[in-house]
Amino acid sequence: MARQKEPNKIFAGKTAIITGASSGIGRATALTLAKAGAAVVVSARRKDRLAKVASDIQAKGGKALAITGDASLTSDTDRLLEKTLEWKEGGRKYDIVVANAGRGLAGGTLSSDNFQWEEVYNTNVLGTAYLMRSAAKYFIEHKRGDIVAIGSVVGRNISPFSAFYGSSKFAIGAITEGLRQEICKYGVRVSLVMPGIVVSEFQKVAGYNEDNFYKGIAHMGKLLEPQAIADGICWLLIQPPNVNVSELIIRPTGQNYP
Ligand SMILES: NC(=O)c1ccc[n+]([C@@H]2O[C@H](COP(=O)([O-])OP(=O)(O)OC[C@H]3O[C@@H](n4cnc5c(N)ncnc54)[C@H](OP(=O)(O)O)[C@@H]3O)[C@@H](O)[C@H]2O)c1
Question: Helices 24-35 and 47-59 sit at what angle, rounded to 10 degrees?
């Protein structure tokens, strides 16, 4: 007889890879999936921060493996996937990939430079696409799996406070939906989660200040915590295998635009 899962351990037996897990949405997603029984492989560049996420999970009885790496480098992504497949506690496999690593960039095209453009595109678009393609190949072989890409509401409606960054999220939205169409016949689900404004380290990294951001959102009221996005990700992952929530937008209630 099949062993019943504890009701609150809905992801028991699953292994999830989460990039950008050293803070914000990625961290919250890793903690939430681990709490619900998943073995989680967390990745980001900051070693200490990542190790702390893993040790927080382990301290609560969860399974976690930290692999430091830069999501914009294909060699680091290859290493992340290889190490995951070697991880005994994770069952030497993976079932869920949350492609979350990314950075914002305040303002539009005039106010940003080439270096920033490259960093945004190499991480948010090319790095994410590379991870999704690698995971897709693995999942096609195994006829199952979930790929969740983190887009943005500014990847649906462009906004002057982050127009260039928004363009990278438009691209990832297109890549995600295209990939979904390519691989749905293999039983692999692909989802795009588009958060509205979430309070995290994102704003500081993007370079938002009073003039280019905070004044414009002052009327929106209470913004989101990363947990709101983590909960949305978990919700779409627990749908029956024939249900693919291919797009999910989660905004603060008071966010009228974008
Ligand atoms: N916050 C928002 O309002 C918002 C809204 C819509 C969408 N999003 C998207 O949500 C995702 C997570 O953002 P967040 O709000 O959680 O921001 P955050 O707190 O700044 O977290 C970003 C995460 O990505 C990692 N990261 C950034 N560049 C990386 C790289 N080159 N290689 C590996 N890891 C990298 C960071 O870790 P290290 O620095 O340690 O590498 C960190 O763990 C991003 O894709 C972002 O675009 C955020």
Answer: 20
